[in-house]
Amino acid sequence: MSTTSGEPSGQAPGALLLCRAEPSSVGPAAQLLRERMLLTGAGDEWSVLVPEGRPWLHGAEPVDRVLTGWATALGVGAPWPVLALWWDADHSGYTLASGFRRTVGYEWLANGTPVGEDEAMRTFAARLGLDPVLDMQSLEQLAKPDAAADARARMRGLLAVLTRAGVVLPAGLTPGEPVGRLREVARLQPGAEQIEWTGWRAAVRAELDVVEGGSLGPWLRGPKARALAVAQLAAGVPLAAWGVRRRSGGWIAAGALLVIHGALGLAYDRLRAFD
User: Fold this and answer.
1) Which of 43-52, 120-129, 183-192, 238-247 has the lowest mean pLDDT?
2) CA-CA distance, 229 to 216, in Å (whole number)?
3) Residue of 119, 113, 120, 106 lying closest to 144 (CA atoms)
């Protein structure tokens, strides 16, 4: 990150994934990303995933691209929105994914210079159900030049707005902190869970258990379920292919997760028909 004078401080890249759901619902879905993450609560209705960061710490893929892919993958496969917060030495920002709607995001250069459109902030507020007057005023301030605020200050301002939507990050789990520090803080939280890839069978079984036991259970069968599954397959195959061409692990994960959800939806509907 840069200071307000524009001198780089060499901040290492990092990220957090905020999900508007209980950890018990987020864990099975996050497994399908096939990345090591720590999961803990972030308020009464929110959870936070702290990734290990291998794709950007040990590869050539930028953190913002990886997080956009992960947020998309989680958002299209779950009935709750996913907010990715990311940062590196040059810029910081967020990406919001919710269902099949186009992702919305905003970013700031290291010295705090806004790089984005006002419409993105309005869409962001609307999708999270934020106050269209008070919260929107705060978001508009984040989109205006401010020589006294660098990118880290902008992210703190964003989190201040999100607290009014119920987000309560544990103390020390702050955007801009090194990945090791974030994981240490997350690991010490009550009920923290290590998310690891345990194989397709275990991951799929866990996710189906959560979905069947939740409000979406009755929607797993029938014409609407089949239409959704076909749409997921139709979107996932080209998305995964595009990710392979771009060598983007995040977008490959997004496409693969769509394909998995679509295939599971069709298979589940078919199997239940024989019950």
Assistant:
1) 238-247
2) 14
3) 113
Burial class of residue 36, CB neighbours in 10 A (0-12, 13-18, 19+): middle
Residue 187 sits in the same domain as residue 54: yes
Report which secondary-structure segment, H or E, holds 259: helix 249-273
pLDDT band, residue 205 (cuts 50/70/90) = low
**What is this structure's pTM?**
0.74
In what helix (H) or strand (E) does residue 95 lie, and over which residues does it extend? strand 91-97
**Cβ-contact 55, 249 below 8 angstroms:** yes
Q: Do 151 and 258 fall within a single domain?
A: no
222 and 248 Cβ atoms separated by less than 8 Å:
no
Write the Ramachandran bin of 6: left for phi over 0, alpha for psi from -120 to 50, otherwise beta.
left
Q: Domain residues for 230? A: 220-273
pLDDT of res. 143: 95
